[in-house]
Structures are given as structure tokens and as C-alpha cells.
Amino acid sequence: MRATESAITAEGVRKSYAGGVDGAGLNGFDLRVPAGTVCGLLGPNGAGKTTAVRILSTLLDLDSGHASVAGFDVRTQPRRVREHIGLVGQYAAVDEILTGRQNLVMFGRLNHLSSTAAGRRADELLERFSLTETGRKPVGKYSGGMRRRLDLATSLIVTPLVLFVDEPTTGLDPAARREVWTAIRDLVDSGTTVLLTTQYLEEADRLADRISMLRAGRVVTEGTPEELKSAIGGDWLDIVLAEPADVAATAAIAARVASGEIHLDGGARRVSVPVDRRTRALVEVATALGDAGIEPADITLRRPTLDEVFLQLTGDPPATPAGGATPAAHRSTTTGSATATEASRAAGGDARRAATTTGPTTATEASA
Amino acid sequence: MSTTTSPLPGRSPLSRAGWALTDAWTITRRDLNHWALRPGAVIVGWAFPVMIVLMFGGLFGGAISVPGGGGYFEFLMPGMFTMTMLFGLETTMTAVATDASRGVTDRFRSMPMSASAVVLGRCAADMLNSIVGLSIMIGAGLLLGWRWHGGPAAALAAVGLLLLLRAALLWAGILIGLVAGGPESLASVQILVWPVGFLSNVFVDPATMPAWLGAIAAWNPLSATASATRELFGNPGWGGESWIAQNAMPMAVVWPLLLTAIFLPLSVRRFRRLGS
Fold first, then answer.
1. Domains in chain A: how many in total?
2. Where does the ABC transmembrane type-2 domain start and stop, copy by copy (chain B) (predicted)?
3. Burial class, B2, CB count within 10 angstroms (exposed 0-12 / middle 13-18 / buried 19+)
């Protein structure tokens, strides 16, 4: 293994698409991923996540800037880079007609293993990814989760120094998603550096050591999940109401103690308030609610979720994984105007509407 | 966990070429595995031209008088061999477009293997497919009463011309497959294969067509190969006084070389530009 401080480095990488096709470009993209860590690249659709991965994995040329992977320049030494990377794409890039084992043997041969070594490695990987039984069936008959695990196994035939995982669980059900997460975590334990792109905050929170948030082709903020959560201010006060009609009045009361934007969820009858002074805010709000004759179903203090960080920093609502693993992924943000409340109530619990207005202080300012 | 490392690739051009050939063979074997796992698809591909022969033999056999007399199959078979080479284009296009859209091409490109191996492997697999298809057609022709009348050398030369045309169409297939981006968008191209096949001297004498249409049909590369193979097999042909009809034999070599000269650089360029 080649000793490098950072396994992935990108400095001022720019890429634009003349026709505007095939996703978003990069606009001064910077990234440093220390060897042996997992970096989560988080951002909405079109932020440039896939473009970044394609450039770093030598599939796409960059317009300007500099990028190196495992110590080799992606532009001048693409072949050396390819010797050290694995790529797991959004689409399981395996042959559908061949069996799982035939796929592994073929890619093993293309990695220049002898045919016995390729066969042995295929069996090892099938066992490790719990695919031994299905290994002799054509991939076309695999479930989504099995296919993604095979894709991951294929990327690990020759143990890569750096593994790129591009939206590994898009379109998977919750059970399959957990299977893939377990597989990635095991891999990280063995020392591989991982760059993971995802739209799912829960995924980044679970897998990544550090998270870089991407917006419009550049990293807007970077840190550990915990740092990002504290960056948007202290704790949150969640008030769940018994009566939907009380949401607007509650938001008005909560605004007095809020240290940032208040999030309204009309469908869930929930008001979420960022607060600095925890206990005092709790007492103040509880008292004011009592004075106003509002009886909340529940009041809790909690740490912010990455959803809230995402919303604060990118202004875009994050995606909810199919199957709804993050219960409070979408929130309406408002100062508490009656119309927004009406709108979100009318829209119902599923189609929540985001009506964003400025709170007393925005979190970005607060953290700056 | 066990760790596997790849043997360091050789840096000398010779060892690189060796790896490129090994890799190409791995890619070719992948297609052979496809045949074994999904025999239906490949068998239908091989049976399809036989079906066309039976259909056209039955439909037109009685209606079209063959130049110089003799059975319709005597006349039809060399043209249908040529059509079989054209149908091979669809195999290439579909395979290339499917790999590109499913991310398999990207995986190949992210591996430390030479790009030429991917293309070479594809070519070898498709040529093998067409050789089997052509053998089946020759067998079917023999069963239906078609014979070659020249010597074995002339017959082999005819087969050589047919495969030369197929090899030229490979590059067109690779280019179209890469441009299409997915097998779904190939439907329109597949429909166009038919007019290209019919606008030739394969079924009908171009002299009986309106002048402009006849000229297009006569200059169709398929016509040169069909005429040349009819001549080499000693089967009846349309003849004709035009320059192109008189020079079918050299043109059956020139056309495929010209098509290769156009489509090979274009498809290589397209493959390289997947990264830009």
C-alpha cells in the first residue's frame, strides 16, 4: 500500500457540460479525504455528486483544477488510478445474463487473476456477501439488494485502496438498504477509503466519518455529522399539538425563544424550534402555551437531525428514502403565518409544502 | 478479510499487447456464455434469415423469373447471405447500447484494462456469431437445392467477401450503439435496416426500378457483395451495363474497406469521448 496522507484530493475542479446533458457540472469543487476514512458527499439531485465521482474514477475528464486518487493524478495517470480504485455505480454494473459467479470470474480475469485464482476469489466474495446460494443463478433473477451486493463484490475482487460508492441504496427497500450498509461498513473496517455519495441523510449519518455538503457544483460545508448538527445551533424543541388549529398560534409563541428558523409540519401537527437556552426555552414555551389555553400532546428537547442541517445549508428539501426510513424528512419552514399553516394542512401529511421565510436569525449566521 | 492484489501490469508494449489479447478473449467468452445461458435469443437470430429465405422463396419463387433460368433459390441465396451479414449489425448495436446504458462499459473503463480489448472482444464475439449464422444459412441453402458451381477456392473467396462486409458493419454497429445510449432508442434504427436491405439487388433487379432508385440500389454496398458472391458461387445474377454492375467484384472489396475507414475512426473517437 502506498502511503498517502489523503487518499482523495480535489482542488478547484471545474467541469461544465456544453449541452447541459448528463447531470450537473462542478464549479470549484474541493475535497480532501484522509486514507482509511469514509467521506459522505451529500447533496440534492443535480448538485454534481455523480459528476465528482465520475471525474475521480477517471471516467470523465475535468475542465480545470487538479484531482488525485491514491496518490496518482486522475488526468495524467488514469491507468495507475484505475489499478487502485473500485466503483459501485447507481446502476448495478454487472452483466444481467451471466450468473453472479460468472460475473465475478469474468471481472477477476479482467483484473488479470489466473483462472483458478479468479474462481477462488469469486467463491470467497459470494460467501462474504451471502450470495453463495444464488451465485449460480443469472443476475437478471436477483432482487435489487442482491444485485447491489454483487456489484459491491465485483468492485472488491482486487481489494481497492479507494472505493467510490455512488448512491448505493437508491431505489432499494429498507431491508436491502440495511444489507448494503452492513457490507460497506465491513469494508471500511478493513481499511479501504470510501467516498460515498447519497441523497439520504440517514445513510451519511450512519456510514460517514465526515460529510461534505455539495450544492451547485461546490462543497458548501464540511465536517463530522456531529459538527454539522451543532453548526446550525443548539438543540431543538419539538412541540406536537393535539389540535391542528393550534399550529399557527404555537409557532408565534415559539418564535420568541427561537434561535433560527422554525419548522412547521402541519400534517404531523408539529412545530420544531431551534433554541439556545434549553431549559429556559422549554419552560417559557410551556408557560406561554398554558396561558394561551393550548394543550400540547408532547414537548421534547432534542439534537438537530441532518435533515435540518441539509435544509438550512442547501435550501433544498432532501430526499426521503423509499420506504420512509427518516420519519421527519420534510418540514415546512415559516414564521408562523396562518396561510402557510393552512396550505400545509390542506396539502396533508404526505405532500408537505415548504414555505420558507426568515426567522429571527438564520442558523448559518449563528454558526458563523 | 482476505486481500487480493492484481499482478502489476507489464510496462512493455509487448506485454501490454498480450494483456489486451487476454482481456479481449475474456470479453469474447462472456458472449459465448450468453449463448449458453440464453440460447433462445441467439438461435432466433440465426433462424431468422432462414425464415426469410423460406418466405421469399415461397412468395416470389414463382413470380420472379431468374436470369438465365434455374431455381429461385439458386439466385436468392447469395443475396440472403449478404442480408444475413446486414442483420448482424443489429446484434452489435444492441450489445454495445445495452452495455453502455447498464454501466458495464463504465465498469470496464474504470478498470486497468485497455480500451481496445473491449472493442476487440466485441468484434471477435460478433464475428463468431455471424460465422455460425452464415454456416447455418449455407446449410439451409444446400437443403433447399442451392449449390455452388465454382471450385472450393471461389466459394471460400465468396465467404471471405461476406465476412469482410460483416467486419465493416461491426464498426457502424459500435458507433450506432454508442450514440444511441440505450437499447430502447435502437428501434428506429432497426426498422431502417429493412429499407437498406431492400434498396439493393438482393431481391429485385435494379434495372426494373425507376432510374434514380435503381442507381441507389446499384450503388448500395450490399449489391456489390451480392453480385460478387453470385459470380464466385457460379449462381445466376442480374448482370447490367452500368459501371457499378460491371465492377461488382472490386467494389465488394472497396466498399467494406471504405465503410471501415469511415466508421472505425468515428467509433473509436466516440468511445474516447465517453469521458468528455
1. 2
2. 40-274
3. exposed
